[in-house]
Structures are given as structure tokens and as C-alpha cells.
Amino acid sequence: MKRSLRLPFSFLILVAVFSVLSFRAAVQDSRRRVRRPEVAPPANATLLRLAAVESGEAELRKDVDDLLDGTFPSGHRGVAGWRLRTHLDWRQENHLEVLRRNEPRFPHRLRGPKDYRALPDFRRPLRDWFRRRRFHPGVMSELVELIKRPIDRHHGRPDTKTERYGSCAVVGNSGILLNNDHGGLIDGHDLVIRLNNARVSGYNHKVGSKTGLSFVNSNILHLCARRPGCFCHPYGETVPIVMYICQPVHFLDYAVCNSSHKAPLLITDVRFDMLCARIVKYYSLKTFVDTTGKPPGEWTKVHDEKMFHYSSGMQAVMLALGICDQVSVFGFGKSAEAKHHYHTNQKAELDLHDYEAEYALYRDLVEQPQVIPFLKDFGFKVPPVVFYH
């Protein structure tokens, strides 16, 4: 080879060798980055601390103690408006003959001896509920035991102990459901969860017709308790019902209705309720700070802390995360043209819910579940979640 060509040729060889080595190093580094576990950014410590503050604890304890002592409210105007009376006064006012002449002031319409026999049974679940009242995010891993196994036993299915449902559809009540024909897609899931007795008839092609679990808040059950036989089965008498308690007095509704139900009437664990409340409050605080630029301490000027609460939909989604391997969510969200509920004419949202904060939580469930506070601290793995809008 001519001397004039040796230097350029040697230079090309060196460049080629360097390129190969650089490429191999880049590939190895890329593989290391892929294998490296995701590290969630630290949650805001101030927001976590404020989210843990629970107001109204003293009032709640007093209400529970009064109910356990046999002192019943004669009206249903909320915690601050209860006028307490003795058990004897309450029973006299709700005597069957009196009920035929006057509208009862107590939130139950007891219609027969069966209802009266069920009355003492409310104390045990109320006592157990309040005794378990402590913050424990690990309850997410107990939901199969608390919810799914009783439902499986009711249907006569084999007891798999830890096995979850393969796929679940949580069907919300937003008017945006009317924009698509998702009925067939919804019914294709192993378990379909519906909220607060929303109508299905006439909307089947939009919302489906299959229901495996009815999720209600205790305000809905309170309305059911006024009906003969505590009828609360728009999806059929064999469909299990899961409810969360809004007020301790609703344990009376539970006692009356539980004796009439052919399917399980389950109460969500209070530890699960507390977890949902803390997560939503954290996202509400974060949304407030991010959108207003104000310090989190001013959050209480916008939200009534004693009335602030998560929505039924949010808790139903959280429930599905604990009992399902895959979760699909329908009818969550809003638009200017859509009604608040697809089956009613309600347009306005409830002030006690912060829907924007809940939407922020839903985005994280889909895109970055590792950043959701409280869940990640106990090693709970969020299953795949898809929201259909």
C-alpha cells in the first residue's frame, strides 16, 4: 500500500473501532436504564401532613357513643342538627299505628316485627366499624378477603382466597356516557360495578345491562329503607351491594335492610374509607396550590373541611383496584354539553366533592401510579387502568 494512503486508512480503522465501542457502551447503558426501577418523586411533606388532619373527630365519637347507648336522633338533618331522644320515646313515636297517621320523624319507617327484631343488630357492626377506625393503607391488599370472597361464597363459587377478578368495569353516572355506545364493551368484563342505583333500562346500548356489584353510599340505602322490604335492587335481588357509611346513624338503615336482602349487603372497611379520604384530600390540596399559587393553609377558605368528602365514584374505582387485575372506567368526567348524571336532569356538581382533584388522581392512576401517596408506601401495585371518555 502506498505510504500516502496508510495514514487515512489507519484513521478510518480507528474511527470504526471507536464507533463500535461507543455503540456497545450506549446499548449497555440503555439496558441498564431500562432495568433500573422507577423511583417516585417524594410527595410534598406539608400536603401529606395536612391531608392526615381529620376534623369532626370529637363529634363523630359522640354520635357513635349516643347510638351505642340507645339514644336515637328524631330527625335527619345532619350531625349538627340531631335532637337526641331515648329509645323508648323513639319506639313510641315509630309505633306502627302512629306511622299510619303521621309522617315519622326518624329516618326509618319500620313496617313490622321483623324490622323491630333487626334493630338491636345495628350496634355490633357500628361498634366494630368504629373500633377499626385507624389509618392503614395496607387495607388495599385485604379487599379480596373483605369484598370478593363473601360475594364468591354467595354465588357458590370455589373459594380461591387470593384470586382477583380478571377484568372489571366501573360504570360512573356522568352524562358523557351518552356520547358513545359502550354497552357491549362494558358487559364484556368479568365484573361490572354500578353506582348509586343508576338506571340501566333504556340506556343499555350506552351503559350496558350486566351488573355484578352495586356500589352505593349509605344515603341511598337510607332511601331504600323507607320502602316496603327495604327494596334496593334495581339490578335484581341477587346482586350483592357494597356501601360506605356516610353517617353513623345509617347503621340503623343497614340493620333493617340487611335482614331483607337475599344477596350480601357489605360495608366497606372504615380503614379503606379513611385511605380514600386522605388520598382525595392530598390531591385537593395539591390542585389548590398548583392552580392558585397560594399556600396550602388557605385551602380551608375554599373547602368546608367538615363537609369535604370523596365521591362514590372515586371510592368505587379504588375498590376495583383492590379486587381486579384490570380496571376499565366509564362515565367519569364532564363536558359543557353533558348532564351531571346521564339518567337525571341534574346539571350542577356537588360542592362537597372536589372533582378536579379526583380527575388528577385518575390521570396518575393511568400515567404514573407510582407517585400516588400512601399506596406506594405500603407496596401496593396498582393494576392497569383505562378510562373511556
UniProtKB/TrEMBL annotation:
It is a single-pass type II membrane protein. Its main location: Golgi. PANTHER family: BETA-1,6-GALACTOSYLTRANSFERASE GALT29A (PTHR46779). Residues 1-22 form the signal peptide. It is found in: Golgi apparatus membrane. GO terms for molecular function: sialyltransferase activity. This is (wild Malaysian banana) hypothetical protein. One of its GO terms (cellular component) is Golgi membrane. Pfam families: Glyco_transf_29. The lineage of its organism: Eukaryota, Viridiplantae, Streptophyta, Embryophyta, Tracheophyta. CDD domains: GT29. Keywords: Glycoprotein, Glycosyltransferase, Golgi apparatus, Membrane, Signal, Signal-anchor, Transferase, Transmembrane, Transmembrane helix. The keyword S-adenosyl-L-methionine does not apply. InterPro entries: Glyco_trans_29, GT29-like_sf. Belongs to the glycosyltransferase 29 family.
